[in-house]
Amino acid sequence: MKIEKAEVLVSSPDRNFVTLRITTDDGLVGLGDGTLNGRELSVASYLEAHVVPLLIGRDAHRIEDTWQYLYRGAYWRRGPVTMAAIAAVDIALWDIKAKAANLPLYQLLGGASRDGVRAYGHASGVDIPELFDSIREHQALGYQAIRVQTGVPGLGSVYGVASSPTVGGARYDYEPARRTALPVEEKWDTAAYLRHVPTVFEAVRSEFGPELTLLHDGHHRMTPIQAAKLGKSLEPYDLFWLEDCTPGENAEALRLVRQHTVTPLAIGEVFNTVWDYQTLITDQLIDYVRSAVTHAGGISALKKIMDFAAQFQIKSGIHGPTDISPVGMAAALHLDLAIHNFGIQEYMRHGDATNEVFIQSFRFEDGYLHPGDLPGLGVSYDDQVASKFPYQSAYLPVNRLQDGTVHDW
Fold it and tell me: Is 285 exposed, middle or buried (0-12, 13-18, 19+ CB in 10 A)?
């Protein structure tokens, strides 16, 4: 079964997506997600100029060989653009292999290890009352685990807080990439944040009780000692995890945090390979692996990372916001269902336009996701609808401290 054609599809329903579509000589079609938020065209160009020419004529069944060929053969390894491009190929080839077998993809990964995939959603508000409304909305949708983010008094726009309801009452998933000529610049004050967040969780626990599963994202904004302080202050509120409390590139930073708090730690959404995790896993400095299938080299690579993590009782928490297309989300769900050391799956609901372009078979019910049982990934792409949504330049915000110093966003 030879690869006959590979197309790079860029569309912007609700936000920008990069999709790779591979067609074999016997007519099977596979989809892969290569979306890199704010740098989408870099991946599209990498695929078109450097990867697609290498795919034509290759055996579509040789997934591992193709992965190694693209990773080792380029000499320049790792990095988000390279790994997103490789992921797009890997996901598409797994989609094809499962369709050739006439099985849902998870069956080729060892079969289901559970009946459903527990998911968490994103509740947020500029203040406590708005946050409570958002939590109740998510509970009504069926979520039993909820990430909590709020505005910080004295600051304007803050990471993770959705826009106010639009005309008509719809509240769209938080999408930080803005369609502007230059990145939006936001202000940040870590001290104000550290004072405010514990009071938020105290209020949430008082209102919603001890059984609701709560998560929080620090978005790399704290020094190690600040992160340790926050983790310790949140211990009374029994978080499922504290995510990205400090930049994870420095393993020693997580070691310091570990020494001061028993709040579980999740990290890795900006990681690309197993090498980013090596010390964090072997020294058990984290509890959850946060990489996306789309950004960590695909299903093949992330499954290996999770098998490595399983030896140290570390579980999955695969990245799943709206900058992962439904193709990438479906790939994550098939992997979630199959691996033994599953933890939880992030799930932000896409907008209506995205759901018209990407026709999906996965389902969400009573707090759990399932990828469905169609052959392959269970996602198809509607070219006619996609043509209505051409690419639009968009940037993630830039963050500055109150004195103007550029800070981690």
Answer: buried
10 Å CB burial of residue 311 (0-12, 13-18, 19+) is exposed
Over the range 179-203, which residues count as b (16 or more CB within 10 Å of their CB) and which as e?
A: eeeebeebbbbbeebbebbbebbeb
Res 360: pLDDT = 97
End-to-end Cα spacing for the chain: 45
Token pair belonging to 365: 């019910």
**The tokens 């896409």 sit on which residue?**
350
Q: Answer yes or no: pTM beyond 0.85.
A: yes
pLDDT tens digits, residue range 111-123? 999 999 999 999 9
Positive or negative: CA dihedral 178, 180, 181, 183: negative
Distance separating alpha carbons of residues 408 and 160, to the nearest angstrom: 14
Q: Taking every pair of C-alpha atoms in the chain, what is the biggest distance, in angstroms?
A: 61
Using CB atoms within 10 Å of the CB of residue 242, give its burial: 0 to 12 exposed, 13 to 18 middle, 19+ buried: buried
- Delineate the domains of the chain, giving CATH numbers in brackets: 3-107 (3.30.390.10), 110-374 (3.20.20.120)
Residues designated as active site: 159, 219
Total number of residues shown for the chain: 409
Predicted confidence (pLDDT) per residue in 236-245, tens digit: 999 999 999 9
Within a 13 Å sphere around the CA of 333, how many CA atoms are in the beta-carbon half?
30
172 token code pair: 């769209």
